[in-house]
Amino acid sequence: MTLTLKSVSKTYPDGTVALQPTELHVEPGEIVSLLGPSGCGKTTLLRIIAGLETPNAGSEVRFGDDDVTNMPVEHRKVGMVFQSYALFPNMSVKGNIAYGLKMQKLGRDAIEERVTEVIRLCQLEPYVDRRITALSGGQRQRVALARAFAPRPRILLLDEPLSALDAALRVTLREELAGLLRRFNITALFVTHDQDEAMAIADKVAVMSHGKVVQTGTPEELYRNP
Length: 226
Ligand code: ADP
Ligand code: ADP
Prior knowledge:
Elements: E1 3-11, E2 17-26, E3 31-35, H1 42-50, E4 60-63, E5 66-67, E6 78-82, H2 93-103, H3 108-121, H4 137-149, E7 155-159, H5 167-184, E8 187-192, H6 195-201, E9 204-209, E10 212-217, H7 219-224
Parallel strand pairs: 3-8, 3-9, 6-7, 7-8
Antiparallel strand pairs: 1-2, 1-4, 4-5, 9-10
Bound molecules: adenosine-5'-diphosphate (2 copies).
Domain ABC transporter: 3-226
Subcellular location: Cell inner membrane
Main location: membrane
């Protein structure tokens, strides 16, 4: 699914200009890292794509040929993973992953099949019946990824999904994550302020500064022209 942003801007009610009119184009199946310092507008951009925040008039967000600028969040089929997991702590791993699928009104067999698939792919078999509170940080993050993959989203938005983890685990999980995204052929936007992480995981890096995407290129292109 292609993702296209045209002239997307956002001013919060208190007058803060979070995004200046900005463009972004992501090809189907591409992994794009959004890289930039704290406060440059990365989270706002993701929230607009997800439908959690309304952009200023004149902004346009497209998924493929669909103009989704005014489409409610529940119709967008976007998956989201955040730094702070947002899992249900007292529910089991399986319960957390199945939750979103039940909301989609999938049948019992279809839910079972999808849950089993993502549990296997995210290597969570030993923990299916454990409560989230009994898992380590890395295991929790795997559950968050499994939960996001299960509904087969058209686009996956990841906001610093690894930043709560220690350095070694971050490297392991980012390799796994890149593998999963490619395997599912999911179009993904990955927010980070860590340049090495952005370069390692992405097909392309979009560099943001002061509310705008100011440069886009492959990691190789950006290394040559930093
Ligand atoms: P990050 O830099 O990781 O995006 P922040 O600490 O800037 O995290 O923001 C955390 C949350 O607080 C976000 O949901 C953001 O939308 C919100 N937020 C950030 N700045 C403001 C602000 N000035 N007024 C209200 N909410 C804000
Ligand atoms: P980043 O994710 O790159 O840290 P954000 O999108 O969170 O950037 O924030 C961009 C700018 O918008 C910052 O100046 C932040 O303080 C401000 N901001 C974020 N959320 C809100 C909000 N709900 N209300 C007002 N200002 C906000």
